[in-house]
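= Paired protein data =
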Amino acid sequence: MTVDQILKAKGRNVYSVVSNLTVYEALKVMGEKNIGAILIIDDNNLKGILSERDYARKIVLKDKSSKETSVHEIMESNVFTVKLSDNLEDCMELMSEKRIRHLPVLEDGIVVGIISISDVVKAIIEIQKDTIQHLNSYISQ
């Protein structure tokens, strides 16, 4: 299964904010969209990603103010990305190895979607269900 197949099933909605927004404003968008991470895009270029974990570790635990801190000050700027043609196993390996939960999907340098560890796990479960069903059919013949 490829990233493209996952996005076809879940949709290609991409939520983003600009880097000079305050962390508080970014968190409001995340809350409204019910998402755990948001992409930081300036002038159509992916600049970073901000997650709930970033907020907890870089604002709350350091006693900073989310209303006075800009997103660019705490966002993760070293963003790992995937392509539509990448397979599920590669995505899972990257997420596990780098300990990340979200992967922006790029084609020709443009963000075309985002997948989460949850999307990958759901896809793997579906593949396993199909395999089990196929094996059960084979055995029953």
Observations:
- The chain has one domain: 3-140.
- Residues 3-140 form a domain with the CBS-domain fold (CATH 3.10.580.10).
- DSSP finds six helices and five strands in the chain.
- The helical segments are 3-10, 23-33, 52-60, 71-74, 88-98, 117-140.
